[in-house]
Amino acid sequence: MINFKKIIAEKIAKAVNLEIKEIQEYLEIPPNPEMGDYAFPCFRLAKILKKSPQEIANEIKGKVELGTEITDVKNEGGYLNFYINKVLLAKTVLTEIDEKQEKYGSSTMGKGQTILVEYSSPNIAKPFHIGHLRNTIIGSSLYKIYQFLGYHTVGINHLGDYGTQFAKLIEGYKRWGNEYNLDENPIEVLTQIYVRISDLCKEDEKVLEICRENFKKLENGDPYCLDLWTKFRKLSLKEFQKIYDLLDVSFDSWNGESFYIDKIPEMEKRLEKAGVITESEGAKIVDLEDQNLGVCMIRKADGTTIYATRDLAAILYRAQEYEFDKCLYVVAYEQNLHFKQIFEVAKFLEIPEKCVKGLEHVRYGMTRLSTGKMSTREGTAVKVDDLLKESISRVQKIIEEKNPEMENKEQEAEKIGIGAVVFSNLYNNIIKDQIFDWDTALNFNGETGPYVQYIYVRTNSVLEKAELVPDLKKVDFELLTDTESIKVISTLYEFEDILKAVIDKNEPSILARYLINLSQNYSNFYNENKIIGDDEKLTEARLFLNKSVGIVLKVGAKLLGMKMPNKM
Hints:
It contains 22 helices and ten strands. By secondary structure, it is an alpha/beta fold. The longest helix has 25 residues, at 223-247.
């Protein structure tokens, strides 16, 4: 596809004898189409060229050659505004979409690079709550987008399947297991036991000490503790898979914390060889005070491991197994210090430098209730399966009211209900905390998932009404140069750059907002132009643009983790 931005950068770079890449980074898209398609702020070069922005603009304008791609350039207050060939733009974009279909926007830019994405990572034997839902949705979207851009991408579900909480659960089950039935609602039952034993630990320090002893037994391979732990893990994974199936989420690796237990000795050996492990009150630590990061504990005084121990062993294993270029940890911002510490300690593991540099914490904000934070210990967590079922149920009611004759209502309600939850988790910058709001998420006219799905369904209904499949060979691109058509085409043209911006910042909200922008621009095009009319040539051109919008909306939604309904 023609890279208009690069062509403009080449012309400017030639005029001022600077690097093309630097110039390309400075190019902007003006807020008003009348001000051109691209703008170059000449004040960026004022210090380098020791001239005023106005002088620089005049000088460059005099040297820039117009041609097939660039039809005009104007100097507006120190900005150079470039106007591209609209017919060529329309032909370029629609031809590319026609050729690539649902691969439009994909690339091979990531060829030869390996990206690990760790996401979801729920704790076994605990409910899959909405805090882990956001983690899952963000990570899955990043996984799909990196893969779409040609990276070898590995999705890792780093299950919370180890630690003191399982020792508590083992003790609770040992005491009261015969009072419960694990065959029905196993996660709910295990949560009840966990809450009960946690309360007892608060009341009796001796019980807490017994739980700690259980953890030591588990780490040492005690058969009874190991059998119970294995049972809890299998039951949990079976329940979690139901949620992953609903969300269309998958993983390449299910290696949780327990997987890395036998990798810990080698990790410790490397740190000891580097001379960074010291002893403090019986515990093994790495002192990071010089970096203002406090102390990173490697082993407790009783010899048991903690999160940091297992995460460092995981880094070593992943560097050896994948020799990754990036390893993304999609984890809430509350764990900032933890990741700063382990990334700092990882420098002493003797792994490739690119692996050390590729460690990245993708922070996201917490999901909160109106009553405050969630806590499994207190039994106040909101379960994801309940949330998803509620969303689907609410959509079913809306459909019954507005379109009771719709075919396959249950299937369509599921796509819309799940899509609403997914989109609401991705629409705002992921670092922001959020409160899930039903009225906002399920608004068919707002900046929501259902709105994007509604616009997609509209593009399909237009094609059905026309009763013909538009043919690119019959499209007269000159008929698509009106303001509303060009807005849509320009937005379609941006798609691959939008995906690149997502992975540059690991920010899926960029794509979510793009889909809203494309939907709104299409809506304006639809309202201002009669798509199916008496003029066959005009109808053919507008129908093809309509079809192209549907393709890109579907591709973009899929990369976020949404399925498109057939009817709404």
